[in-house]
Specification:
heterodimer; A: about 250 residues; mainly alpha; 11 helices; about 75% helix; elongated; B: about 300 residues; alpha/beta; Rossmann fold; Alpha-Beta Plaits; four-stranded antiparallel β-sheet; cell membrane (chain B); ATP binding (chain B)
Chain lengths: ~250, ~300
């Protein structure tokens, strides 16, 4: 535990020294909220709901997706510079290092999420349900964000090249949401994209949030809970397994 | 004397090549072993196995009395590793880097800060303690990297090419640091491509090439292996035949004449030989412009060994 805290402290210091990271994590979601919300609020109808409100879940999920990149790059950098080798030659727990990385970045994601919530609220987002479901919705986003950090550990530990990491993770943040229901309801997407968006696990996560916040247009059955939960669980398990294993045995 | 490092028959295969094919090493406690070899010889692989970062395919390795495969944690508690790239955190300051390691090693906040301050002092980094490491010079980075290995005093220290990429002044400074550590009683395994470095720092040298130790001994023993001392004499070019005749008596092999009146010969005896050779030249009336005894450098040893391997 001391070890995890020490690693977390390291990561937080790193993040404080590079304020661009916070910008990187918050930029895309804010752009989506402001630009899409402002430009298209009158043109896009989401089946009765308010588009600005609809968009909010998409932006919240983008915060999570945006967290993949910084973690992946930090992990890959540590692998490349030999910092991981140094830690691995110490008599410390082998999980402490990736755990510290994700814990530090998790605080960053929370901060970014806070900013998005403030901006979203200013732009007119609010929950139509009670306190408990609203918090549950945020819990979903928070869990999603944390799982994404482990996906970052996974990317960072299997892809050595920093450039390819940053382009893949950019793709995750900017393009992936368009192939989901982040910005548009699935039913209004072109037929080609629709099946992808329907099956896109992040769609399930957003549907779940919208349902919990009462921002959803279409009523949902139990399936998003299942899909979102299962996806997150599988992702977390896979990333944990590969990330920790990679750290423990890296040649 | 107890062995701080004991390696027998170490093998490691990577996908397409055999990095180590049966390495044996023994380093008595408190001594310095220089592991010398060209790029790709297996130096780093050996160090990584010994530092528990890599599992060997075969063979055994004991460090500070513990098997690296069976009790890696015990080994880790007793070693320090400075890899080929200074593994310090660029974004943190020098002090933060050391405090982080102290905390990781359970010295507690105050203990970690105290130890960091001591190390910064010892390595002449106090002035730069609160600057981010990315502003450090290569030499400072290296010193911080080595300081990082000493947060908890290790029994065995591995330095993998510690001076690669350093300018000559930083290199000499780092050598002084290393000598200081060795005086403190640590056992050191040092890999290097520089023969001079091994000569300067190591008690014993193991030459490694193609994943095998091809020679080992003290630097002097290795030099002797290549051949004894050679006498190099420069005379007026016209005197060469006379000088050759005069020197032939003292040479172990027929002397060789080079360009510009240079003559090189392997002496049969040692000190007596030198004196008599000088006397013989004078009585033959030869004008001697230079007269020097040259001992082979480790470079000669190295090139000789590698050459022999290639032709054998």
């Amino acid at each position: 535990m001391v070890e995890v805290l020490a690693m977390t402290g390291r990561r937080l210091r790193q993040l404080r020294r590079s304020p661009g990271r916070l910008l990187g994590v918050t930029l895309s979601p804010l752009v989506s909220l402001v630009v899409l919300g402002y430009l298209f609020r009158d043109t896009i109808s989401v089946g009765g709901g308010n588009y600005q409100e609809y968009l909010f879940a998409g932006a919240a999920i983008q915060v999570g997706l945006a967290g993949v990149g910084p973690t992946a790059i930090a992990v890959a950098t540590d692998l490349r510079t030999g910092a991981f080798d140094r830690y691995r030659s110490l008599p410390i727990s082998r999980v402490a290092v990736p755990l510290g990385h994700t814990a530090g970045d998790f605080l960053l994601s929370l901060l970014a999420l806070g900013i998005v919530v403030v901006v979203g609220t200013l732009l007119g987002w609010h929950s139509h349900t009670g306190l408990v479901p609203t918090l549950q919705g945020f819990a979903v986003v928070v869990v999603f964000s944390y799982v994404m950090l482990w996906v970052g550990v996974l990317f960072g530990s299997i892809m050595g090249n920093l450039e390819s990491i940053s382009s893949v993770t950019q793709f995750l943040v900017v393009v992936l949401p368009f192939f989901s229901n982040a910005f548009l309801p699935v039913s209004s997407l072109p037929a080609l994209v629709r099946p992808i968006a329907e099956w896109n696990p992040i769609s399930a996560v957003m549907t779940l949030c919208r349902d919990l916040w009462g921002n959803g247009a279409a009523p949902v059955s139990g399936s998003p809970y299942l899909v979102a939960g299962a996806t997150l669980l599988i992702l977390l398990a896979a990333s944990l397994a590969v990330g920790v294993r990679r750290f423990a045995t890296a040649g | 004397m107890t062995q701080a490092i004991e390696v027998t028959g170490l093998r490691k295969r990577y996908r397409d090549s055999e990095a180590l094919c049966g390495v044996d090493l023994a380093v008595p406690a408190g001594t310095v072993l220089g592991l010398l070899g060209p790029n790709g010889a297996g130096k780093t692989t050996t160090v990584r196995v010994l530092a528990t970062l890599l599992r060997p395919d075969a063979g055994t390795a004991k460090v500070a009395g513990f098997d690296v495969v069976r009790s890696p944690r015990e080994v880790r508690a007793r070693i320090g590793l400075a890899g080929q790239y200074a593994a310090v955190d660029e974004l943190l300051t020098g002090a933060e880097n050391l405090v982080l390691l102290g905390r990781l090693l359970h010295l507690g906040g105050r203990g970690a800060r105290r130890r960091a301050a001591e190390l910064l002092e010892q390595f002449g980094l106090t002035g730069a303690a609160n600057r981010p490491v990315r502003t450090y010079s290569g030499g400072m980075r290296r010193r911080l990297d080595i300081a990082s290995c000493l947060v908890v005093t290790p029994e065995v220290l591995f330095l993998d090419e510690p001076t690669t990429g350093l300018d000559p002044a930083s290199r000499i400074e780092l050598w002084a640091t290393v000598r200081e550590l060795v005086r403190g009683g640590v056992t050191l395994l040092l890999t290097t491509q520089y023969l001079e470095e091994a000569d300067q720092l190591a008690d014993r040298v193991a030459v490694i090439a193609g994943g095998r130790v091809i020679a080992d001994g003290t630097p002097d023993e290795l030099k002797r292996k290549v051949g004894g001392e050679r006498l190099e004499v420069a005379v007026e070019p016209r005197d060469v035949p006379v000088a050759l005749a005069a020197l032939a008596r003292f040479a172990a092999e027929p002397p060789v004449a080079g360009e510009g009146g240079r003559i090189s010969l392997k002496l049969a005896g040692t000190l007596d030989g030198i004196a008599s050779a000088a006397a013989a030249l004078r009585s033959a009336g030869v004008d001697v412009t230079d007269f020097a005894l040259r001992r082979p450098s480790l470079d000669d040893v190295f090139l000789d060994l590698i050459g022999r391997r290639a032709s054998g």
